Amino acid sequence: MKNSLIFISISIAAIGSTLALAYFIRMDSFEFAWALNFLLMIWVSALIEIMKSPLLSSYFDEKTWERRGKIYEYLGINFFRKMLVLIGWEKVIRKSTPVEKNAEALMGLHHQTKKSELGHFIIFFIVLAFNIVVAMRFGLMKSMWLFGLNILLNLYPVILQRYNRPRIARVINMRRRK
User: In which broad location class does this protein mainly occur, judging by the first location in its UniProt entry (predicted)?
Assistant: First the structure.
């Protein structure tokens, strides 16, 4: 019951703050696109933490078409990874969540990739909805900030988690065999 009330409260706060953002900042601006993405990241992260789901859906399993990440390498995931290192994001993440070499820590990291992917996946579709509204209301060109930031801040992070998770799983499986 308590978690349900917290979940509902967070959802209402997220909707309210998102509507306030749309009211106070022009929806066709870079500022709106940037603020919307980070506002949603805060709220969606809070919702995912409250859910405490084990995230066992087969959606998170590696698919045969992913070919051990080759498709993601073709889409430029290695460039995106290097960009994260260059801007310092990797240091920030590793400081808050250091990678340890024990099995329990690797299992935690594996689960964290699922939570991160789910969060960015949800945000991607919310921002896409805003993108469509802005394109219809202000024109396609005015929606490009939303589109570009959605690709950069949500789609590529989803791809990154899908690229990393099977690699982490292989390390976990190798450790279990020892």
Answer: membrane
The count of other CB atoms within 10 Å of the CB of residue 113 is: 21
Alpha-carbon span 153 to 159, nearest angstrom: 11
**Tens of pLDDT, residues 50-81:** 988 899 999 999 999 987 899 999 999 999 99
Q: How far is Cα 135 from Cα 141, in angstroms, rounded to an integer?
A: 7
Q: How far apart are CA 47 and CA 41, in angstroms?
A: 10
Task: State the residue range of the domain holding 164.
Answer: 2-53+62-177
Q: What pLDDT, in 10s, does the model give residues 6-57?
A: 999 999 999 999 999 999 999 999 999 999 999 999 999 999 999 888 999 9
Please provide the DSSP assignment of 71-114 as one string.
Answer: HHHHTTHHHHHHHHHHTTHHHHHHHHS---SSHHHHHHHHHHHH
User: How many domains, the chain?
Assistant: 1
pTM: 0.92
Exposed, middle or buried, 121 (CB in 10 Å: 0-12/13-18/19+)?
middle
